[in-house]
Please model this.
Amino acid sequence: MTSDPKVHVFEEVAKHNQTKDCWLVISGKVYDVTPFMDDHPGGDEVLLSATGKDATNDFEDVGHSDAARDMMDKYYIGEIDPSTVPLKRTYIPPPQTQYNPDKTSEFVIKILQFLVPLLILGLAFAVRHFTKKE
Model:
């Protein structure tokens, strides 16, 4: 760690949320984990999901080893300005599928999923019955 750490604004850190440019905030410190993305045991998705927020709870909940905590030092790039960290992350709901008031197409599909195998089975029995030699 450097003797005079750079202080980063949260909005600046939140912009680094890609696989090729990933910064995390853990315990008030900023880490550039971009070089570690391919090596992380949980995969890069775990690290990407922790971007844009204070990832302290995510990090602590996993129960990282002492070796993992020591490894963090080489990715340290500065401190976060605590006054710029939002108290709560804004929830963005996932996009919803459009409501389909006409359920007939779904109903027809379910009926066909039931009837087609029965028709195939009936056809197989009919073929066997009429081709059977007595």
